[in-house]
Each structure stands twice: as structure tokens, then as C-alpha cells.
Fold this sequence. Notes:
The chain has helices spanning 2-17, 127-130, and strands at 19-33, 40-54, 58-69, 74-87, 91-98, 134-143, 146-153, 182-185, 196-205, 208-218, 223-227, 232-236, 239-251, 254-269, 275-290, 295-306, 318-328, 335-344, 349-361, 364-374, 389-397. By secondary structure, the protein is mainly beta. It has a single domain, classed as Porin.
Amino acid sequence: MKKLILLVFLTIKIVLSVEYTINGVLKSFYAVQIGGEHEFLIEYNRFQLNTEAYTENLHGLFVVDFLHDLNKQSEVISLREAWVEYFSSWFSLKLGRQHVVWGKVDGYFVNDIVNPLDLSYFLLQDFNDIRTPVNILRGKIYRGNSGFEIIAIPEFKNSVLPSTGRWSIFSIQFPPAFQGFKIMDKKVENNLANVGLGGRFSTFLFGTDLSLVFLRKMEYTPIMKISMEDSLIMKTYRWFTFYGFGFSQPFGAIVLRGEGGYYKQRHFSTIDLTSVKSPFYQYCVGFDYELLMNLNISMQYIEERIADYNPKIIQEERRRIFTTFLNYKSANETIKPALILLYNIEDESFMSGLNLELDMIDNLNILVGGFIFNGNRDSFFGRFDSNDLLFLKVKYYF
């Protein structure tokens, strides 16, 4: 009885000491095709309600997400984020559905590979909406200018990669002999044997931010496997081991930064629906430059390469992408035009955008602009050549 009274007393004390904040955002994203039939390529509304709770050593966040996608004719209600974090002066422990961001590349994913991706609309959504939270146990230890974190990922959730429609990025031409085969997604059990593990060490040394990354988990992108006996084509998810690094060094108005990683063995699908393993590396080097008080320039060079390439592999042997981002701020940062360019040097395809961001009314953010895709039909950006668009994004915060 005494233990029960003590438990009730402690619960009441914790509840009374908690501070709550409730806020949210309503997002609308509409994009219409330039030319053609002028159809809507993107058409959705998203409402997110955020509840945060604080005590002296605890912090919790719960995000309820309501998504109404008119293109997909779907309505989804989900608990997008839900985590609790205990923190002190030298360590923290965070448990629940969350984002883990280990990469700093603009407009692309190099070391930022902890969370699965929602590429329903390629790279046009906000990165917080592209990156899908999953259940993760995350611990951090701090000491001076250094920190070490370790993660365990008990939940598997594959990336959303459209295989049909205007935003298809995972379409495979099956050989004639396999045309009648049924495609099945092999379910990954959430058990102890399938828990992903990772770690990251970061430090500030001689004016440079440095980080080292290790990750051992399953791919979020499927590998196709054929079963002749059952007339099945199965989407399977293979393990990989990843070693990465990152750095950032300011030189006056210029910040030089980079990151990269090496996969000891990575699985790749082939044209005959088998898989092969090969080492794989990727890296990015770039800089941010404040040219004028209100003008920022960011340029990056990104390279990915399959080390021991087999001609049967569907993915290209090498991908080299050059990116440029120009951002200008005027009228007390309430009017912000921007130019975006992603150019694939290998196949000469590109994605280019121009937008104007307006922050002139409290709690209301408006982004208008357009994107052009160009290249051969089978190129990285050219596959969306008919998706040139004008768009409108509206966000209302409360």
C-alpha cells in the first residue's frame, strides 16, 4: 500500500511539473504541369499538430499528421513523430519515432541514410517530409567539444519509391520470360535479429567540425529476386555496412564542407533479376559563400560509384552531380528569391528551379516558383522531362 501511495505521489508530482506547448502547421502543395494537358502533378494538404512536453530533465514531442493527397485519392492519419528524451549535462537518451540527421548535403542524400525516404514526388517535398521517422533508441555522451552517439533501429520501414505514374523512379523492364510473374514485397520482421546499429563521433578540432559515422542495417531500397518455382519476383532488403566521415571548416565568409561514405559490400539488382555485390562509395565536397550581406551561394560536387561494376547491373556505374543554390534576402528577410540547379554530368540531365519565398505576414509562409527537368528519357533527371511545372506552397503556423 505504501508503494502504491508513493507511486501515485510521484506521478502527480511529475504531471504537475510538466510544461506543455501545442502548435501546428497547415501545408498545401499544388503543382501544375507546364504544357501538355496542364494536369496537377502534385495536389495535397497536410495538417500537423505538435505537442511538446518539458520537465527539468525530460523532453517529449508528439506529432499527429493528417495527409489528404488528391492525386493518390488517399487520406492518411498517422503519429509521425513520438519520442521522449532524458538529458543531463553529459549525456542524453532519446527513445521513439524520430529523425536522425547525420548528413549536411543540400538537396541530396549522402550520409543522411538513417531514415527511409518518401520519394512520392522525387525531391520536391520539404526534406522533413521526405525523411520518414522510424522508432529509434538514440544515446549521446558529451565531453568538451566532442560527442559520441549510438543508435539502435528496431523498426524496419522501406522507402517509398514509385514504380508507376509520372514520378516513377523504380521502374524495371522485366525480360519477356518474366512478364507474367507476380511481384511480391518480402516482409521484414521487426525482431532482434533485424535491429540496425550505428554510431557517430563528432568533435571540434583546430576550428573544424569533424565527424565519423558507422552504420550496419538493412537497405530501404529493394533488390529484385526471382523465384522460378513460384513464378514470383520478390522485393528483398539486404544488409549493408557503411563507414562515413564529414567536415566543415570556415574561412572568413566561405565555409568549406564535405562528407562521404564507403559501403564494404552493397547489393545491386541486375537485368536478369539476380543480384550482385560490390563495394560502393559516395562523397560530396562543397562550399557556402556569403557574397553580399543578403546573397548566399552554395555549390557542391557529388559523386557515387560502384567499384567493381558488372554490366548487368541496372544502376549506372557512376553518377556525378553538380549543384548550385543562390539565395537572396530583401525587405528584412521577408522576400527571398532563390535559384536551384542540379546537373548530372554523366548523362547531361538536369533539374532547375526558380522560386520566390514570401514571409510578409506573421505565421504565413508562401513559396511560388517552377521547376524544369531536361535530359534523355532514361537519364537521372530526364525521366521527368514531361513534368515541368509551376508550383505553390503555403504554410500557416499556429
